[in-house]
Structure formats: structure tokens, C-alpha cells
Amino acid sequence: MGRLRRIRxxxxxxxxxxxxxxxxxxxxGVIAQEVQAVFPDLIEPDESGSHLTVEYDGLVPPLxxxxxxxxxxxxxxxxRSAEMGDEESGDRSGKQEATELVSRAAGEGVRTTLxxxxxxxxxxxxxxxxxxxxxxxxxxxxxxxxxxxxxELDSRVAALEAPPER
Length: 166
Fold this sequence. Notes:
This protein is mainly alpha-helical. The protein has six helices and six strands; from the N terminus they run E-H-E-H-E-E-H-H-H-E-E-H. The protein has helices spanning 20-23, 32-38, 60-84, 97-106, 116-122, 139-161; strands at 9-11, 28-30, 43-45, 52-54, 127-129, 135-137. Helix 3 (60-84) runs parallel beside helix 6 (139-161) and helix 4 crosses helix 6. The two termini are 29 Å apart. The relative contact order is 0.18.
């Protein structure tokens, strides 16, 4: 979790001088320099060393581990809350945009792919057409959203874990 806290999910406009290959992707993801600071093996510089590319697939295992950790922490909090008979287990208000959007995009049930039509409703820039003319989801853009969601959930769980102020 600690390393993921140091990475931001961001949205950007591509600069005019950005490589053409990069411009084919949506301006959503993470900052390569932030990833390089905590996961240097997931960064590939170009020939000149002036542009860095993130290997987004490599961020999936740390995100999965973070979800597993958060799920365990949340389960322990829910168990403790049930033992104490609390109706209210913490402040659920506040900014939850990333988590809510990701939850809506995920839909119902466990899947290994996402429906481009559903994703396009929330994130039109994350749907493109591949070489075969099929509409596909650009998963790389979702990694930044997932990072922000994990950080938001971590913050909310940490607030629930904190002893109550008197």
C-alpha cells in the first residue's frame, strides 16, 4: 500500500511534441516519474531518454495486493463494529468520485473483460477501435483510476480504524 500512495492517477492533454504512438492512447493514467520512484522496473525510457513509458500491466499485482489488504482491514472493522453493536461505523461522506466511477464501470459480477459500451458511458476516451475494427477498452487508462480508488478506500478504512476522538 505504501508505494501506491506515492502514485497519482491523473488525466492530461497530450503535448504537441509527444510521440505519435503515445497520442493514440487516452490521456489517463499515472505519472511515469512517480512510478519510476517506487517501481523502477516498470519504466522504459525511449532511445533518447527524454520520454518514459509505464508498463501498466505491472501495476496490476500491487493493486490486487492493495485490494486484498483493504478487504481484510474492512472485514476486521465490520466485525469489530458488529461486536460493539455500532449502527454507524464511520463517516462515509466526503469525496468518493474515483471509487464510485470505478464501481459503476466494473458493473455486476466478476469478469475478466469490460464491456466497451458500459465503459464508454463513463469514460468515452477509454474506448477505441482495434486493428480488426472491434471496439475495445484501453485498460491502461483505468490503472490511474484504480490507484486513486485504492488510495481513497485506504484513507476511509484508516479513518474507521482510528480511535474515536473524545
